[in-house]
Amino acid sequence: MKNGLEDVIAAETQLSDVDGEAGRLIIRGVSLDDLVANSTYESTATLLLDGMMPEALTEEELRQRLGLARKEVFAHVAAADNQILALPPVDAVRALLARLQDGDGVDTAIRLMSAPAVFLPAVLRLQQGNRPIEPDATLSQSADILKMLTGRQPSREQTAALDAYLVTISDHGLNASTFAARVIASTQAGLTSSVLAAVSALKGPLHGGAPGPVLDMLDAIGTPAKAETWLGDALDRGERLMGFGHRIYRVRDPRADALKGALKPLTATGQVDADRVALAEAVEAAAISILRERKPDRPLDVNVEFYTALLLETLGFPREAFTGVFAIGRTVGWIAHAREQALRGRLIRPRSVYVGPLPKAA
Ligand code: CMC
Predict the structure, then answer these.
(1) Which residue among 126, 135, 214, 356 has its CA within the 20 to 30 Å range from the CA of 320?
(2) Residue of 295, 312, 334 best suited for mutating to test ligand 1, as the one with most atoms within 8 Å of CB
(3) Per-residue pLDDT tens for 96-108?
(4) Which strand ranges, in their side-by-side order, compose the sheet holding 30-31?
């Protein structure tokens, strides 16, 4: 038995390939760098869904239908009562998602892709005592998310940065949440069920729940000069450094650099806190060096969550909402995998080794 199913191949996929030795991510034949440089959320979603849905969609059709779907799902925000609003944002989004109909078609898929994009900003505003802002079907998904979050038209650089984030995290091989989505899809339960299972897997700090704690760590460190001591003390206490390490990557996670790059236009136009970036870079360098020293047998480098934290903070998302933003971007990957599994896979049903007591008679 392989603990954590490490290195076990559990699916064949045309969707994405994670090469952990080379530090390379390919999404449907396109390298991550090319994808981030030349795509939007909508074009990446079209690429991921190509051939997986009962009906083909062009990028423009998807953009229009997502806009209309955002309007349609906004009606569900009314169900966010005090009990739902008392939950952490990702749990509140999950509760609202659970009210959507299940199904396997394009309408269900598009509704699911637009729902977290609408629910998360609405939940955050309601939790802060503000009125939710209605979606604008004419905007791109990224621009509309930022407008629903702040009530203001986002700048071109802000929209591009969120787009780069959503593209970067759209799919990533057989990670825990995608595997969960495929397990559910293999029972033919429907896309809404798959996405709900995936959100539940995503929220754990070992998967998509790390970027909030990354900011807590930056706050606790405070200044670049304190990085080395603070990180050393944390490792002495047996803690893990959030935003570092990965099950597959043995080198730098390529998504970290894609997100670092996405911050550059914001930095160039003065829309980023330069001191915060300097602190993050100092912490990153100190952490890599100390991890090399303390864990010489396990290559540990920066992962996607580190620069996610900086990017989403810059765009105005509160840290408790970061996992929810991850869910907005990853939903299309979950849907593509769920469809691929339902179309080409079998019921996923592995076996376990019983190591408990035997009945007396045996
Ligand atoms: N800080 C300190 N030590 C670490 C870290 C870390 N971030 N990550 C792994 N290690 C150590 C771990 O303590 C263990 O050491 P030892 O063998 O001496 O006990 C060794 O490295 C191997 O750890 P592991 O738990 O077998 O590694 P894994 O492949 O199961 O864990 C991980 C991968 C991402 C859960 C882990 O690196 C981690 O907890 N990182 C911090 C949380 C984090 O950044 N999560 C976001 C992951 S990226 C998002 C995604 O793609 O899902």
Answers:
(1) 135
(2) 295
(3) 999 999 999 999 9
(4) 16-19, 24-27, 30-31
